[in-house]
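fwd from M.: "can u put these together and see what the complex looks like"

so here's what she sent:
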Amino acid sequence: AQSVTQLDSHVSVSEGTPVLLRCNYSSSYSPSLFWYVQHPNKGLQLLLKYTSAATLVKGINGFEAEFKKSETSFHLTKPSAHMSDAAEYFCVVSPLNAGGTSYGKLTFGQGTILTVHP
Amino acid sequence: NAGVMQNPRHLVRRRGQEARLRCSPMKGHSHVYWYRQLPEEGLKFMVYLQKENIIDESGMPKERFSAEFPKEGPSILRIQQVVRGDSAAYFCASSPGLFGGYTFGSGTRLTVV
């Protein structure tokens, strides 16, 4: 079984300040982890993914996340927030197969709404 | 590459009608997943299909909901006799199989009036 907990339902930051969105996971198998972003009334866009390679993963738009197995965490960070980052962010887990690729259904966290103030 | 195409983008149905949601996966992708997003909630897995096969339907409601992915044409999520509680955004994702790389469509927003 697998589950994802996003620790904050809302995060508010000022433009130009760092962003931290927290995610903890639970998985019976070696997990593959993703962060997706959803802008209002839009689809989901993949920000980054971890699939058992480097533990620090760099994604699009300056975002990155670090996989910490000992803490079962996969927090998303960005050094400097931009107004266009305002959106809802989802942490997602999927089990890895023996070959190290992800398969099967995704389990989504509840989402974190990021607000960026001028 | 047009990505994952879902249509219609918005669908309004009266209670008791049928809703048909279509999903065309990315070219070369043979695995399709359907997810439902209720208001103020994250996405919940519904069903995983490959061509002509349902692999995992553990997230599908037991009644009124069905899904198919025929040999030719798009995947269809069908909801019979819709009720107000079916109002949600329905997202489709596709992948090339065992290589991950899930790509999501823009979703179909179903409103039941």
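replying to her w this: Chain B touches chain A through 24 residues (CB under 8 Å).
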